[in-house]
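Researcher: Last one for today. Full complex below.
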Amino acid sequence: MPDDAPDPTTQRLPDRLDVVGLGSPLVDVLSRATEEQLAAAGLSRGAMALVDLAAAEVLYAAMGPTIEVSGGSAANTMAGIAALGGAAGFFGKVADDELGHVFVHDIRAAGVEFHPVMVPASADGGPGAEAQGTGRCLVLVTGDAERTMATHLGVATTIGPGDVPEDLVARAGVVYLEGYLWDLPPAKEAMRRAIEIAHERDGSVALSLSDPFCVDRHQREFLELLLDDVDVLFGNEEEMVRLFDAESLDQAITSAEETGLLVAMTRGAKGSVVLTPRGPVEVPAAPVDQVMDTTGAGDLYAAGFLYGLTHGAGPEECARLGSLCAAEVISHLGARPEADLRQLVREAGLLS
Amino acid sequence: MPDDAPDPTTQRLPDRLDVVGLGSPLVDVLSRATEEQLAAAGLSRGAMALVDLAAAEVLYAAMGPTIEVSGGSAANTMAGIAALGGAAGFFGKVADDELGHVFVHDIRAAGVEFHPVMVPASADGGPGAEAQGTGRCLVLVTGDAERTMATHLGVATTIGPGDVPEDLVARAGVVYLEGYLWDLPPAKEAMRRAIEIAHERDGSVALSLSDPFCVDRHQREFLELLLDDVDVLFGNEEEMVRLFDAESLDQAITSAEETGLLVAMTRGAKGSVVLTPRGPVEVPAAPVDQVMDTTGAGDLYAAGFLYGLTHGAGPEECARLGSLCAAEVISHLGARPEADLRQLVREAGLLS
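Model: Here's the assembly. Have a good evening.
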């Protein structure tokens, strides 16, 4: 790929950003797939599996024709906030290769402030070169529009506390953390450093639980984070049940309420529930003509919610904004918004 | 990108292919654009411009978020024929880089036989490295779904007669040539060699006029080709008018009829006209709920038409198959089919 959007370092930067996200920069490689293909690949429907380079190559070879489009959970959320008119920043590590340039171009073109740490591309990227190349997420979309993901993180795995852009994080009203990064010890330290900076500057910290298996892997640490470090929590029903070891959804909701945090629990086609100290608020999903690909639904829900939160909306309106953005992104292939989100917000009479 | 679909050289290859295409292998880089962006880039609406690497980089930097998806005119046509159940082959030159691997993966995953000539990727691909890297086509889709293209051909420009896979071409019932390649003298010789092989084996030769400006650049040579070398001609109204220096569409149709060839003239939303020695046949466009992106409309029309031609259909049914495939590809972003074309053909009661 040729070079990218105007370098933000030469532009006047805003003193304050609404939200800064930390996550793995990934390029999504999407194709339609059958249930048989999921089974053959040993993938768990609807979940995200981390795979090494060799496994990613085998799976890619078995996939049908693909579409490449920038992704990454927190990056998708930041692109959504920018599309809503918010001031968003992002950080994460990419390689100086074609996919890395694609990622950088797309997130800047979306209006997100991003000063990439670009790792030199390896000469070959062959077997054994586990941490080489920009991360990619193989996304298999089945007939019911559900997405199942296999991610090869590439150089995204090498992010550490020294890579945290202190100025960027210090300018954020909210620092948004992708739970997925908790899989990598140095990335975990980077997240802790970002939390520290946010708290020094009276910023808030939002955490996405990312994936049920991710919750299983880090349940204890996530619960500890909720005690002292997190202000806003995002997750779907299954993730909340697993996080709180709940026997039922009601029990998970009760446990979530007891944290005293602002908790947004997404429920797919049933919409979402927001838990606040003043009790739960249920909000329906926004209507969609045809669900094409659920990739990015949770990411864009978080985008709408956080945009609302940083623009004076109450919990219910935040959830409605989340539903609206999620509905847009599931109506087409790919996890970044295509329609004009600001216009959708106006048409829905929100934030008026 | 990791490696690609199963290597066809290790599989049993069919003795006979319906169609083999020769064209530039490209990865499309698509984004939505405004009329102002087209004007600022100096691009002619609806046309294809060839640009050097520096111009491609400037334009890419100014584009919004993009989607990367395999393209290339003749390659799209071959992917369509394979999706219809036909036996299709393709040849063209890619670089051994990420976009090259994406192209190879996607065309094989579509079921097209392709033995790529892979040129080593350059170490940097910086300015001045004009013939480096896999070709890419920057596609700007405006609000009316029209696509305007700027192509940097990369290593596709270096194809010459020595690169023609004689065995592949010799197995083809029809050799399909993309007019775009006529811009490059060595590629022109490759096309002449492919025509020679086709004629030695009693194969037919089909030519796509590709683009009005392409016709302007090569009018005389295209007319000479029609005299001796071409059996089937594809083009839209404007291309036919320019090819025959006609003062009106009727005059272009008369001139096209006088060639004695099988001529398919596409007319956008008005469908197509097929000219045969037994008089013209008009066929309407197939219905589309919403036109999203016209990229690939002509390519997929040719796919349906040639599939019909190699499966016993008459001119009218060929045109109906073309309309059906074109309608599918304009209903989504990207120039390769996403729906099951075989099912669409069955539902339309064609080839039954």
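The first helix of chain A runs from residue 35 to 41. Residues 297 and 326 of chain A are 5 Å apart (CA to CA).
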